Amino acid sequence: MTDQVVTRFAPSPTGFLHIGGARTALFNWLYARGRGGKFLLRIEDTDRDRSTPEATQAILDGMAWLGLDHDGDVVSQAARSERHAEVARQLLAEGKAYKCFSTQDEIQAFRDTARAEGRSTLFQSPWRDVDPASHPDAPYVVRIKAPRDGQTVIGDKVQGDVTIGNDQLDDMVLLRSDGSPVYMLAVVVDDHDMGVTHVIRGDDHLNNAARQMLIYEAMGWDVPIWAHIPLIHGPDGKKLSKRHGALGVDEYQKMGYPAAGMRNYLARLGWSHGDDEFFTDAQAREWFDLDGIGKSPARFDFKKLENLSGQHIAAAQDAALLQELQDYLVATGRPALPEAKAALVESAMYCLKERAKTFPELIEKAEFALAERPIVPDEKAAKALDDVSRGILGELTPHLQSASWTRNALETVATEFSETRGMKFGKLAGPLRAALAGRAATPSVFDMMLVLGRDETVARITDAAS
């Protein structure tokens, strides 16, 4: 094997990028990126009836959103079918595979008899050792010659050594009767030709490893290092499915989770590094190792995802957060913010991103910057704008017009104004929120004033007071 680590993600393009697939891709990406290796992408599109260009695009879009860049071109498995068949023919020529002429009816009859006699129903072809000179002129499949005794040991970095008796392995079909290669052959040939050193995938493929090793060994190829990771379960401990909520990565983008929060959460889903919950991409690449993957299924927890997402929003650079907010708007079918509004929102990020767990929450807090005059207060905010409050706002306006536009100066003006009227500032805050944002729940009134600037602030308060 080469010294360089090469991992791959090999989804089937029959639908969206599933959350389990996204985690598999992330684990492969982290393992390769953390070791200066290569991370390759192969689309396993051999099922021509179910594979669609739209599904392939959905997978590419999901990976792009998650920031999982791959090396080299995307490999199409279907485009390599001639190469797969070539390997089967080589094994046939070397006597490591054989032509089997048994019909489906004959195979079924074998199994029925075996079942009735209490024997293994694993099909044993009568053609395994027949001299090719005696072969009929009839349709056939090509089967590999599996060992009939002994054991196959899968040395797995997550599951440990898994031993399978060779009497449990059948003579797997390599080529169908129409000459087309089967998936199990295609996977092995592709992984070998792509130089894959580590196969990190779901543990639903664990039994496949023993059968795939037959091909590696028959061809004299290096067997990759296996790491079969447990599946993801819902909060109820059952396999993750639609009843638990969103399954596709694109749905999480549309729900407004930041990509960094999603990466962090998916990395923690079945893998751990001590007690660390929140970490950066750089830390994940440095820390990620196969030893940290647990053997038990991970449970998806929306509360933990929200918590981590909030921490990543708070830690993000303002410009990067604005760009991702724009991407979120476009992904949900809304127009991106125009330049002037985008600049205003970016200047407000310092007071928006604390305690916002998703982009919808961020937009809700940014409503004051997005709104246009005249501000129409919602029902709750309108209650704060009675005649007395309007009068107080009217009196406050000249004080703001002459104030120095810094936070300290604005706080001083508001506090002194309140005290001279024998009221606490809290009494003034409600009407100010209604005037500036039209909402009862907003960032601090002083933050809103600083972001909006003197002219817009005074104009909004004047509107509300009249």
TrEMBL record:
<protein>
    <submittedName>
        <fullName>Glutamate--tRNA ligase</fullName>
        <ecNumber>6.1.1.17</ecNumber>
    </submittedName>
</protein>
<keyword id="KW-0436">Ligase</keyword>
